[in-house]
Design brief:
347 residues; alpha/beta; Alpha-Beta Plaits; TIM Barrel; 8-stranded parallel barrel; 15 strands; 18% strand; globular; binds phosphoenolpyruvate; binds manganese (II) ion
Length: 347
């Protein structure tokens, strides 16, 4: 069951609902989004009926939700959400391009990639400082030094930054630099990490686990929402199948399915799904055409030198093509490109 608070509800109104529910033996989780506050109730629904929640001060609506994910479900929030990341928007009316290197390697490489991202129409810069690598001998990222590079490049280009966080102990550190926290495919069911990013007050990009069903993915998002953070963007990045021609299999149908079940935005990663540069542009077209709210794309100024995922990174000559794809397809899909924030004036 979910209690939707009216826009004018006070903190006391919210607290009164939480107290009532707890006194009745239930649990209440408050989630504050940009436009509304909702309280998710866990416990005996019949017992809550006796509390007359609908008539309490500040309450707009009370709903029974039939799916196991309550706060992120479209049943209680039919309008699709808009998530703000710095000055960029991710939602149903915009097309948001997130682009940048797979890994932050050097200040020059990151700045060059950010400039390419901007030229491609990106409004958010991606780049990993903490890299989850299959091999413990592979490049693991620059850690905090990489976060500092991302912050410097944000100051230079104005682009807000999304970067991955691997463990609960690093959430505060990563959040102190980043505008959005990424949960990678390998951590989609790291529940302690989901709860930690749910408590830190920054938007979250939640990648689908490579072997997760859509329902498991949505339940992972619910863990974040249940800690009070509704600023979540879902990212389909390909799943494991029997096919070996591509790195993963892009589950394109996951986009409309997840959008129908959840009010959260859904974007696509055409780079990690195909794992090949020649597939990135076709999969980007497919993502936009199926109705994705954005794409997250690997680019690199020198892919041959890249320390991670050079095979799937777009190069300078691809940049104009991305801009052209989005210029042609966005109007057909009723979307405008998300605004790209400008750098703060110096002095
Ligand atoms: C990434 O985006 O850098 C990444 C590691 O992606 P995924 O978690 O989807 O493999
Ligand atoms: Mn990568």
């Amino acid at each position: 069951m979910v209690v939707v608070m009216a826009p004018e509800a006070t903190d006391e109104d919210v607290k009164a609902i939480v107290d009532l529910v707890q006194t009745a033996g239930g649990d209440a989780f408050v989630s504050r989004g940009v436009s509304r506050t909702i309280v998710g109730l866990v416990g005996d629904v019949e017992q809550f009926g006796a509390l007359n929640l609908r008539s309490r001060s500040g309450v707009l609506d009370v709903m029974r939700i039939s799916v196991p994910y309550k706060l992120i479900s479209r049943e209680h929030h039919p309008d699709r959400s808009v998530i703000r990341v710095g000055g960029a928007l991710i939602g149903p009316d915009t097309l948001t391009i997130i682009a940048g290197p797979c890994a932050v390697e050097t200040p020059d490489q990151t700045l060059a990639a950010a400039r390419m991202a901007r030229a491609a129409g990106a409004s958010i810069l991606r780049g990993g400082a903490f890299k989850p690598r299959t091999s413990p001998y592979a490049y693991q990222g620059l850690g905090e030094a990489g976060l500092r590079i991302l912050a410097d490049v944000r100051a230079e280009t104005g682009l807000p930054v999304v970067t991955e966080v691997l463990e609960p102990a690093s959430v505060d550190l990563v959040a102190s630099y980043a505008d959005m926290l990424q949960i990678g495919t390998r951590n989609m069911q790291n529940f302690a990490l989901l709860q930690a990013v749910g408590s830190v007050g920054k938007p979250v990009l939640l990648k689908r686990g490579m072997s997760a069903t859509i329902e498991e993915w949505l339940m992972a998002a619910e863990y974040i929402a249940q800690r009070g953070n509704l600023d979540i963007v879902l990212c389909e990045r390909g799943i494991r199948t029997f096919e070996t021609a591509t790195r993963n299999t892009l589950d394109i149908s996951a986009v409309p399915v997840a959008q129908r079940l959840s009010h959260l935005p859904v974007i696509v990663d055409p780079s990690h799904s195909g794992g090949r540069r020649d597939l990135v542009l076709p999969l980007t077209r497919a993502a936009i055409a199926v109705g994705a709210d954005g794409v997250i794309i690997d680019i690199h100024p020198e892919p041959k030198e890249a320390l991670v995922d050079g095979d799937q990174a777009l190069v300078e000559s691809d940049i104009r093509e991305i801009a052209s794809i989005t210029a042609h397809l966005s109007p057909l899909m009723g979307r405008t490109l998300s605004p790209a924030p400008q750098p703060a004036p110096v002095g």
